[in-house]
Amino acid sequence: MATPTPQYLLLRTGNIITTSLPPPSQTSTTATELLTTLLTSLQHARAHAPSSWTQLLPTGTLLAPSTLSPTPSSLSESRDAYDITVKLFYLPNVPVEDRNQHTLDAVKLVCEALGVGRIDLLNVAFPGVGFDAEDEVPKDTTTSSPSEEEVDEETKSFLTTYHTLESLVHSNLISRIGLSEFGSARLSRLLRGLGFPPCTTSTTSTTTTTTNNPPRVRPSVVQINVRDCCVVPRELIQYAKREGIQLLTHNDSAEVLTPESLQRVISESGIFATPIPNVLPLWVVKYTAVVRDRSVVENKGYFSNSSPLPPLPILYFPLFSHTLMCARGGVDISQWPRSGRAGVAQTRNID
Questions:
Q1: How many CB atoms lie within 10 A of CB 346?
Q2: Spatial CA neighbour of 88 closest among 59, 122, 115
Q3: How much is the CA Rg of the chain, to the nearest whole Å?
Q4: What are residue 264's phi and psi, to 5 degrees?
Q5: What's the farthest any 2 CA atoms get from each other in the chain?
Q6: ω into residue 313 within 30 of 0, thus cis?
Q7: Which run of H or of E encompasses 260?
Q8: N or C: which terminus of the chain carries fewer CB neighbours within 10 A?
Q9: Burial class of residue 49, CB neighbours in 10 A (0-12, 13-18, 19+)
Q10: How does DSSP assign 174-192, residue by residue?
């Protein structure tokens, strides 16, 4: 079916654990798993519903596939039986101010896909941020909080996004915040920018109160890619313990989705009748739901949103312009603030 060029292209895999489609290799990277499952889901949907496998939403977003394989998408047990972890990848060449709405849209989509109203842990990965194995605890970790003028530009961009993450915690949409690839120096600058005083003991508070504002929320988790170093520096381990932050390893790809790889998925799946000259990936989100008492991954999937238009200029609009409610959550996302099988078993705690 010929499809007009939309403003945004929202792709999804559905549950890649219980789907009847061939599963990806256990050794595949996150990038490979994403591309493989996206392409397989799209081709399967097109083969089974050639006249209705995509849907152009009223907001100008093209959803593909419009229907997923006939497997349960929501969770089979009560919400409290699961640990739900989400990782949101902010992609390069996208304005920092757009990340706020990207975050809200991604969380909303995952909530609907799983039929829940809350996520246990939301990890975020910023473009161009990599962990340095030579990272050391910065000298200013025992000094007072920096003034606004002393906050560097990178930290300012992180803080802009972090405010949205905090709002999700205050709204009970997420329970904890995680950061990917933050070494001790970058982490220290963020904590000071949030107003947390340096910690000299392992006993810390997860929140701090600012005058006439909601309490600031301390990040709970920092993820380090196991490919970046063989041994996590002892200084970072000790610093994270003092700040009350859990260190975890992961094996996600540094480049989870490039314009070239997305273009290949679009071309091979036949979403558009004619080639799209430019496509800009905006964000990717990966979600997993693990049955807590059995440590079994019951649901895992991906969403990807992109703009099949020339990269500049970009004006990002919400995927959903009307009031929507997260399933079972009773949350009106129109009131949210806005601005503008790499498996769980491979994640381990660092002691």
A1: 13
A2: 122
A3: 20
A4: -65, -40
A5: 63
A6: yes
A7: helix 259-269
A8: C
A9: middle
A10: EEEEEEES--HHHHHHHHH
The CA-atom distances, in angstroms, between 292 and each of 78, 107, 190, 244 are 11, 21, 31, 23
Of 320, 343, 310, 302, the closest CA to residue 36 belongs to 302
**How far apart are the C-alpha atoms of 113 and 16, rounded to whole Å?**
12
Q: What region, left, alpha or beta, does residue 58 occupy, with left being phi > 0 and alpha being psi -120 to 50 degrees? A: alpha
What would the two tokens of residue 9 be?
């292209």
Upper half-sphere CA count for residue 255 (Cβ side, 13 Å): 8
Q: How far is CA 166 from CA 20, 159, 185, 323, 336, in A?
A: 38, 10, 21, 21, 11
Question: Quick one: tokens of 232?
Answer: 């996590």
**What's residue 18's pLDDT?**
75
**Angle between helical axes of 153-170 and 184-194 (0-180°, round to 10):** 60
Q: What pLDDT score was predicted for residue 343? A: 40
Cis previous bond, 65, omega within 30: yes
* Mean pLDDT of successive 10-residue stretches along the chain, which has 351 residues: 74 85 67 95 91 92 87 82 98 96 97 96 95 55 48 92 97 98 93 85 55 86 78 86 93 92 94 83 97 94 87 51 41 40 48 59
Question: Which residue type is seen at 254?
Answer: A
Amino acid at 70: P
User: Residue 27 has what pLDDT?
Assistant: 56
Residues 15, 301 contacting (CB under 8 angstroms): yes
| Cβ atoms 17, 341 nearer than 8 A | yes
Q: Which residues sit opposite 63 in a β-bridge?
A: 10, 55
User: Which among 269, 302, 301 is positioned nearest to 284, based on CA atoms?
Assistant: 302
283, 305 contact by CB (below 8 A) = yes
pLDDT at residue number 70? 60
CA pair distance 204, 99, nearest whole angstrom? 29
- What angle in degrees, to the nearest 10, is found between the helix axes of 153-170 and 99-114? 30
Give the pLDDT of residue 104: 97
Q: What is residue 36's three-state secondary structure?
A: helix
